[in-house]
């Protein structure tokens, strides 16, 4: 089976990588070291602090104070690809600085196992070798995993993997030592093992592993930094690696930052659709009047509980159903005078309470039945979709391990027996009405052998010799690809919280907590096992849809959604409320709207301030409406990203009869179009490229090494050297990772420009732009992105564009199936992120109201126009109009209008929630021009008008003007 297909250059990951690399801009590399050691990174003067400040300002984290330590912090939310990000960072640091030895520190064995599988995967190695146009050459990771030495009698003086890592000299590889916290704190690492008498040495110097590793000048990478508090022993031992830099990657820092470079918060991850949204299912139990069983006393032999003022004394082995009949099978396992352990592993201390209904088989069965039913609904949706099937997984957390694992005692009411009966019943029910051929076969295979549909992993399995269990565990823990194969019927996974940390699978779509975890943990960490965006049958990440994770909890967690939402929003920096139009506020606006001048801002806000620039009543609120993007970073979690199961539906029904009225226009605007650059010949293109380079020559920043000068003099008859450093007088040596020909070839392949044209341009500008200083990958990316933007901003000015339409079937579309038949319902998320439970206008194509702005909301619910036959919101990414520079654009609404002469007018509307055209960013203005150009072409075949609607434009006036235009 194919391995995972990794996606390169994801913006949120690239920003984290670039932030780390920027720390080392203009550093000096001291390469006078041993062959098995990293080069030494040296900063001149205040260079390090200057670089850190620039990075923080660029990433809007300047509110976090810097320190003088060697620690660099990268904060990325769970599910956004931290491991991949630090792995690519290692490749980049190796390519740019020659760093080839890294120590990766993880907190637990489970995270260690996952990291090992990731770093050793063939698909990852192929990704870096093939997907980056050869920029990493044949460089690959050589992994050294430090394991505990089991046989104490035969323990080596030092783990062999440490010896191999320290002695490695092959700079064509990236050498990575993987070690967990427990191993770091072991006697082995401190050189105190009985087998280590100090007589055997590495490099003829070192008998202590810490000292040997420190000699390599390593870079240390820490995963999950909150597990390594700086006041504890593990952090103290990490310092013994004597790392040049420590890079900490995690979602949780508990506000204990050192030098924060980049922050991708949970808010960003949810709002930017980098992870799944969350839907919670909570059991509301009739008869639960808040009853709780409280442990009030322990004497080591008896435990005293109280319920409704009545006391109950229980000894070891006694069942808690003596206290409450809802409890099915829960007894006292162990106790002393301070702690009691229940049979499910939960520890209770005096004063702790439990919810009796959380231990009811009735509640368990209801939750399990609902999760199974929802799972097969997901299979129906995800295994019949276009663009590659997605196999969903459901994860059950349980405490009744015996009821699941004990093959010899599977009683009629045991968890495993009940579960398999439910799966069987659900499959038989669905097969009665299912017509999809693939789905019928997939479900019939499951029905033929229900036992193969599920598997489990529990900590006790590590010592289990059963081959079947061993295969299950290996597949669940280490072989994600096999678990995701459609040829594998396993889709349900059972565990007892063992999988909560260090394990995840992108296709977990449901988590069902059949029993409480027994402790108050981060809700975000609990759902983290299922937050990643899914992959399809080709192992490619799917991001063109708003996916949700279903989370099932019992009634003891009715506040789950509130707690999770509060936790996510607690990280939001509270917005500043400005009382006056200050330079700070103007700068904030210009950051979001770079094309708006200071004078334009003051003119637009003149009526909102007094003579001293102090805001009048509601002045700041109006300012936020005029420049909404300037204040987005202070926003909180978008509505609908985390929600209860009773909230918003995921599908919206289409009024199919109305689609027939829209069909001709819908098929026309879904017809593919090709963008044509009306550039006469290669010479004219050359002149345009030269213009771009001239206008942007000052934006190229050379990367390289500052050579520190040494002044040599005679002192007391001997030569001596005095190192002299001056920020204004350092010799600059550019780092050229490519020769000129390689640079031209890669730039040609990336930017799709002929090599000869590139050479002519650089030669013509040799006095303005000395390209020999910039022969590296960063320059290639800068030119590609910069020229694409330049083409967009200068289209219709420096050159013309045109369109040609491509024939062929347009189906399936967001509204139709492969045959062109209207769908009965579409994804609500494609129509908008906000929901109104009110009714739309009668002419609207859908039965429910989804929108992205108040202007769209008004179009859908207000200002009915009798001439409108039908209108619709155009789904996101459904109509992709190509624009100069390689991007796309999609308008917002489509209308069919009956004119006074009885004809039909087709109207396409772009809704912009800003005052006027001058308030639009240049990029948006240019994209709208492209749309006008294309729709003018379409208008030659049908009566069609394209209009832009601004904040104060009512749709009735837009329609009137459109009718006049025709």
TrEMBL record:
The protein's name is Putative type III restriction-modification system endonuclease
Q: Does the UniProt entry include the keyword Nuclease?
A: yes
Specify the domain of life of the species encoding this protein: Bacteria
Q: Which UniProt keywords apply?
A: Endonuclease, Hydrolase, Nuclease
Q: Which residues form the Type III restriction enzyme C-terminal endonuclease domain?
A: 844-947
Could you cite one Gene Ontology molecular function of this protein?
DNA binding
Q: Where is the Helicase/UvrB N-terminal domain?
A: 11-254
Claim: Oxidoreductase is one of the keywords in the record: no
Q: Which InterPro entries match?
A: Helicase/UvrB_N (IPR006935), Helicase_Restrict-Modif_Enz (IPR050742), P-loop_NTPase (IPR027417), RE_endonuc_C (IPR045572)
Pfam families noted in UniProt: RE_endonuc, ResIII
Can you cite an annotated GO cellular component? Answer: cytosol
């Amino acid at each position: 089976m194919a391995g995972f297909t990794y996606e390169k250059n994801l913006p949120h990951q690239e920003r984290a990588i670039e932030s780390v690399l920027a720390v080392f801009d203009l550093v000096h590399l001291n390469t006078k070291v041993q062959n098995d050691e990293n080069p030494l990174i040296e900063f001149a003067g205040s260079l390090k602090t200057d670089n850190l400040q620039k990075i923080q300002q660029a990433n809007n984290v300047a509110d976090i104070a810097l320190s003088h330590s060697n620690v660099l912090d990268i904060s990325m939310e769970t599910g956004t690809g931290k491991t991949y990000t630090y792995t690519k960072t290692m490749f980049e640091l190796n390519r740019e600085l020659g760093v080839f030895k890294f120590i990766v520190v993880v907190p637990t064995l489970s995270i260690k196992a996952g990291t090992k599988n990731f770093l050793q995967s063939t698909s990852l190695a192929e990704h870096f070798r093939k997907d980056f146009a050869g920029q990493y050459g044949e460089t690959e990771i050589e992994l050294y995993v430090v394991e505990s030495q089991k046989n104490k009698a035969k323990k080596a003086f030092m783990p062999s993997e440490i010896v191999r890592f320290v002695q490695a000299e092959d700079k064509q590889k990236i050498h990575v030592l993987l070690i967990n916290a427990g191993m770091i704190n072991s006697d082995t690492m401190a050189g105190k093992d009985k087998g280590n008498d100090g007589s055997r040495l590495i490099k003829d110097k070192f008998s202590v592993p810490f000292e040997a590793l420190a000699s390599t000048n390593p870079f240390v990478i820490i995963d999950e930094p909150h597990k390594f508090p700086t006041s504890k022993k593990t952090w103290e031992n990490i310092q013994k690696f004597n790392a040049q830099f420590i890079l900490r990657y995690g979602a949780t820092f508990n506000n204990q930052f050192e030098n924060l470079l980049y922050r991708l918060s949970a808010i960003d991850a949810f709002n930017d659709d980098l992870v799944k949204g969350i839907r919670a299912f909570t059991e509301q139990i009739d008869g639960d009047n808040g009853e709780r069983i409280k442990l009030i006393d322990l004497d080591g032999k008896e435990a005293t509980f109280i319920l409704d003022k009545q006391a109950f004394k229980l000894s070891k082995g006694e069942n808690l159903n003596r206290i409450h009949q809802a409890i099915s099978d829960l007894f006292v396992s162990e106790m002393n005078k301070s702690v009691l352990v229940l049979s499910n592993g939960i520890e209770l201390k005096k004063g702790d309470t439990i919810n009796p209904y959380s231990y009811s088989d009735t509640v368990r069965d209801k939750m399990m039945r609902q999760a199974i039913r929802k799972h097969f609904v997901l299979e129906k949706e995800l295994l019949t979709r276009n663009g590659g099937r997605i196999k969903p997984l459901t994860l059950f957390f349980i405490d009744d391990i015996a009821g699941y694992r004990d093959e010899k005692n599977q009683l009629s009411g045991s968890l495993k027996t009940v579960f398999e009966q439910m799966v069987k019943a659900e499959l038989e029910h669905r097969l009665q009405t299912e017509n999809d051929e693939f789905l019928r076969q997939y479900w019939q295979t499951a029905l033929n052998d229900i036992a193969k549909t599920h598997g489990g992993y529990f900590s006790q399995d590590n010592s289990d010799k059963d081959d079947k269990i061993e295969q299950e565990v290996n597949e669940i823990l280490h072989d994600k690809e096999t678990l995701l194969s459609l040829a594998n019927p396993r889709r349900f996974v059972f565990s007892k919280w063992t999988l909560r940390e260090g394990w995840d699978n992108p296709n977990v779509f449901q988590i069902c907590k059949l029993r409480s975890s027994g402790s108050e943990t981060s809700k975000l960490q609990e759902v983290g096992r299922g937050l990643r965006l899914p992959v399809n049958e080709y192992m490619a990440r799917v991001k063109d849809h708003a996916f949700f994770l279903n989370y099932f909890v019992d009634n003891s967690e009715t506040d789950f959604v509130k707690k999770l939402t509060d936790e996510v929003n607690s990280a939001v920096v509270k917005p500043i409320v400005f009382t006056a139009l200050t330079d700070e506020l103007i700068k904030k606006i210009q950051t979001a709207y770079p094309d708006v001048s200071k004078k334009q801002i003051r003119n637009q806000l003149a009526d909102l301030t007094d003579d001293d620039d102090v805001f009048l009543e509601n002045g700041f609120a109006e300012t936020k409406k005029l420049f909404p993007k300037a204040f987005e970073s202070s926003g909180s979690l978008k509505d609908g990203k985390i929600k209860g199961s009773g909230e918003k539906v995921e599908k919206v029904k289409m009024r199919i009869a109305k689609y027939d009225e829209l069909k001709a226009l819908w098929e026309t605007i879904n017809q593919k179009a090709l963008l044509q650059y009306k550039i006469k010949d290669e010479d004219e293109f050359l002149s345009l490229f030269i213009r771009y380079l001239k206008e942007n020559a000052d934006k190229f920043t050379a990367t390289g090494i500052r050579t520190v000068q040494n002044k040599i003099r005679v002192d007391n008859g001997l030569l001596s050297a005095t190192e002299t450093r001056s920020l204004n007088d350092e010799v600059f040596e550019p780092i050229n990772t490519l020769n000129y020909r390689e640079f031209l070839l890669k730039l040609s392949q990336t930017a799709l420009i002929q090599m000869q044209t590139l050479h002519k341009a650089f030669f013509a500008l040799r006095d303005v732009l000395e390209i020999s200083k910039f022969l590296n990958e960063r320059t290639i990316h800068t030119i590609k992105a910069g020229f694409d933007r330049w083409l967009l901003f200068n289209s219709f000015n420096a050159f013309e564009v045109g369109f040609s339409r491509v024939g062929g079937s347009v189906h399936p579309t967001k509204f139709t199936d492969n045959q062109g038949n209207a769908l009965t319902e579409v994804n609500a998320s494609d129509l908008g992120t906000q929901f109104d439970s009110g009714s739309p206008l009668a002419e609207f194509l859908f039965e429910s109201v989804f929108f992205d702005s108040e202007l769209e909301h008004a179009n859908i619910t207000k200002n009915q126009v009798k001439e409108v036959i039908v209108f619709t919101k155009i789904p996101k990414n459904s109509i992709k109009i190509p624009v100069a520079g390689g991007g796309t654009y999609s308008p917002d609404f489509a209308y069919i209008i009956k004119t006074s002469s009885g004809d039909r007018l087709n109207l396409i509307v772009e809704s912009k929630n800003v005052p006027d055209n001058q308030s639009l960013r240049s990029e948006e203005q240019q994209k709208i021009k492209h749309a006008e150009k294309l729709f003018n072409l379409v208008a030659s075949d049908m009566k069609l008008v394209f209009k832009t609607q601004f904040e104060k434009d009512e749709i009735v006036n837009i329609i009137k003007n459109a009718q006049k235009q025709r």
